[in-house]
Amino acid sequence: MEVRKKIDESPLTTGGMIVVFSAIICFVMGIIWGVLIGMGVFILAVFLVLYLVWAPHGIFGFFLEEGYAIIIMKGESFHKCYIKYRGKVLLSNLSVDDGVEKVPFNIMGMVPMLWPFYKVYTYQQRWVKFKNGTKEQREEPLAHVILMPYVYGVEIKDAETEGKVPINMWIEVEAVIFNPYKAMFQIKDWNAAMTSWIEGASRDFVSKNSYEEIIRGELSSSLENHISKRVEKIIERYGVKITNLSVIQVVPSNAEYEQATQQKVVEERKMEATLVRARADAQKEAIARMGSALSMVASATGQTVEKLQQELETSPEVLDTKYKKQFKVAMDLVNKNMAIDGKAYFEMKLPKGSGTGGGADYSNMIGAIIAANKIIEQQKTPSSSSNKEEKKKIYSREEIDALIAEADKNRSRK
What we know:
414 residues; Tetrahydropterin Synthase, Chain A; four-stranded antiparallel beta sheet; single chain
């Protein structure tokens, strides 16, 4: 009860001095102007001291704040609990539930009581708060119980992973006290107990998983579910409900591990970017080469690229049957004699088992053909910035037939 004495003695002494001083002034006023006037001034002075000095500190009265509960003690035993929470009511079992709010007797918000026989319950509360990336350790004496949702911080140090790598974790827990009596009197310190249970559940989870998975945040949801299952039912026995839980930070305990992890992440991001660029360049070159080959096939067969494209979209297998010879020779010529931008050699292989009834998948091929046709359409549009561009070589049907014949001769010699 040291906390209560610390809270009560100072305002009690101050208020008592004011009352004594007022009594002397009123006695003098009574002699001069009459007893009734002196008594009226004295009563007013006592009320002001009670309302402004004593009641805010739980002496002869108290104020209820929105979203809080106040517990009244009779001697050293529980006597009664009052709450002020719009839309909430205190049930007979001292649980807070939805209902019509019951307002106790009060004088301008002050609930009077016969102090010191009845006193406001006070207790020492410790908790952690994370703010702007820093941890704040808070501790103060409280004369009320918070009923509103409040976010508490839980710090876990040196939790060892499956590979014995130590990590530090910050977890934020949103909790609601739904039974003030159980939270205050059925467990010594409900917040310390909740913190301990969450820490135990977290260490258990971390010990069964790898450092890489945890540090990347891949298991955050699994960790949160694991903690909730292990802790929620236990803490509810003591009038507290966890409404939300989130892991906000996971870092290696060792500075060397942290630096190595950051370097690894940077290298992985660079590698991913390089692969994406390489794939994009390769796809762009493949589409351009495919477009050139299709243009040659269309010229050799006496039709437009658009018509050839329509035929391929309807029956993709014709590229491996009807136009197989022309397309293969065209691709050979493109790769060997018309390399785009001096890039590396590119070879397109038709799907195995293709042809009528072969069951080949032409979806990727058709996508390339469609994209190639778009490039060809763009090439047909003259550039507004340069009218002196060199015209692209257009092969006639006879020229392509001659090239095909020459390619056949070269193959027969081999």
